[in-house]
Amino acid sequence: MAVSRFPCRVRNVCRGLSLLVGLVVALLVNARGTAAWSVTCRDQACLQTAVRNASAFRGAENITVTVMGPVTLTSSLQLGARPEHTGTLIFRGNESQGKPGAFEGGHVVTAAWHPVQLLGIDLWAARAPASLQLGDNQTRWRAARQLYIDGQRYSRTRSPPDAVGLTITNATGDAAGYATTSTVPLAWPDPAAVELVSDHTWVQHRCLVANTSNLTAVSLSTSAPCTANWSMPVLGASPGSSLKQVPLTSYQACQQACCQLGAACKAVDFRPGSCYLLDRTYDGNYSPHGASKLANMNPANVPVMRSRINMAQPCFTDVQNNGQYSMTLPSFLENTANFTGPGQWFYDQGKGIVYVWPLAEHVQINSSCVVLGGLDVLVNLHGAERVELTNLTLAYSSWLRPSTGNGFVERYGTIFFANGTNLAMPPAALQAAFVSDLNIEECSFLHLGSWAMAVGQAVKRIRISQNLFYDVSGGSLVLGALNGTHETDPQLQTAEIVVADNVIQNMSVEYKGAPGLHSFCLRDSIIEHNRIDTVGYSGISYNWPLRQGPTLGPNATDPSLGFTRNNAIRNNDIARFMTYMMDGGGIHTIGRTVNTTLSGNYFHDMGAGAPGWHSVEAQSVIYIDNWSCGYAITNNVLEHCNATKQGYYFFQGPSEGTAHDNVVDGLYLRDAGSINPNTPGMPCNCSNVHDVVGPWPATAAAIIAAAGPRRP
Fold this sequence. Notes:
Elements: H1 15-22, E1 26-29, E2 35-41, H2 44-56, E3 63-68, E4 70-72, E5 77-79, E6 89-94, E7 102-104, E8 107-108, E9 114-118, E10 121-127, E11 147-149, E12 152-156, E13 158-159, E14 172-173, E15 177-180, E16 195-200, E17 203-219, E18 242-246, H3 251-261, E19 267-271, E20 274-278, E21 293-296, E22 304-311, H4 315-321, E23 332-334, E24 344-348, E25 353-357, E26 370-372, E27 379-382, E28 385-390, E29 393-395, E30 410-412, E31 415-418, E32 422-424, E33 428-433, E34 436-441, E35 444-448, E36 451-455, E37 460-465, E38 468-472, E39 477-479, E40 495-500, E41 503-505, E42 517-519, E43 526-528, E44 531-533, E45 540-543, E46 565-570, E47 573-575, E48 587-590, E49 592-599, E50 602-604, E51 622-624, E52 629-639, E53 649-651, E54 663-670, E55 686-691, H5 698-706
């Protein structure tokens, strides 16, 4: 499948005629004499009328809606129940003037671009689309998070933390934000649109800045130099580098013990009952014990603080209280107007001005199509039955919650904390719930600002095949409902899903913790012959019930552990996974399943540890995590996947939730590393594991040849 880039939709000057033609319903009679009707649409008004007519239609005839060329949506297309219509509602894309049939949710920049200078850099600027205006009495414009020129995504400008005066040794954080040693934040054109991003092992938090202020060169601390930055715990050295361990009951006593050791004690790790006195500061990506309270000691030479970054709420409080890891020293800051090269953009939300540094192919920017991501949901199917989407493109969605004071506080795989401790998933360009008999075939999901597709609660008999998913901020597919773990009514469970022969490429472009494909509880389903290529986190995340365990002992059959059963993940080609995050794998499972097979998959060229990628290591390739049980793992191939913490497979041990009753039979390895001899995991019930040197055996070669999409 080729990735198609298509220019902006040309405004139709004959819109009235288009609408009139679009609303004409043609009665067709096929060879058998069965009546059917169809409509051709070129705009949203026509589509909405067609949907209303279909909802009221009585009979068993099929209804076909042909989408001619791209249609710009100003609101989500709602496809609901059709009580009296027992036929199939078909949406089919058709090319018009060289442009594919498409649902587009973006904001097109129509204002003229003109050359400007911003912070000493030569750029191009234009007024944001009028659709982003909030009204005459509003001082700011609507947010925008993605920009595309001629179908190519540009990166938001970013700054490293030390460029704005934030470092491990001198940054001081508190409940409201940070003090810094630099005046750079005071020169930001739009401080309230700057976003602090914090990476932690498998999650990435995002919180907005509220404002900045001048500190008029105040000191970091007026107290004695021997104090600890308890308000800003950071990740870094492990307790293994401690000078000594002292049995203490308070972090204040822990700090005092460090002070008594003098300059040799540079940091502390306090856990209830234990105080570790460390001989080096936290400066790496260390995952602390869950109950740890960490701090570096303030240096004797107290730095001078020159500005303050005040953080937006409630995000900054939520991330400290609820987040999987707190937001300490940010990994980088986005939308800072710090241009460093072509292919970048900045949005001054206060003034409604868009700035770009064009790539060479876009220097004639007034002849290019510039689009900002727009709607969060393009197509919403709720309660629909018998719907088919074919040969359609869905493009230019977004998700704006991270650009509000709520921010994005991640738990796992883009699951985020919403309203305190409640968990939620981001929206998808196509969402389906309480839907049956849905077929999505030969469609393209391109340039999307969140997830591409989500099929949630009470979705059954769905086929998703031969589609292209490309350039997505999140991942391709969410299968199942995050909050559907406890569902015992078979009619309300997610079931009978087939995901086959799709190409999934360039996922987690923005939200690095997104897996290529994410499933929650589902049953009687198949994920087969897909190609997943280039993902920030795991290739496939499977199951993840909200209650993960225990799955041993008297609770083993507890319904609250989920209904996942009778599923197959087979013959998939999964490459360049784990390019950014850690503690994931080619496939990552959590929780109980019954009769699930992982077979014939080809995992290769893992991103972690490879040149050009951010991630240092994955946890494993076949990662059977907390309380996972019921897996038959047969005849899989692993190649060029050697940068793992635990080895090519890992079965979680008792400390996190014992993985049990899993079987491996047939595993072919080449340049796949080795099992960590000190692994905390469970031993593998393995047979026929082959570490191959030289050509692949015939069985492995056949698995590789059969993996990925089948040719029609």
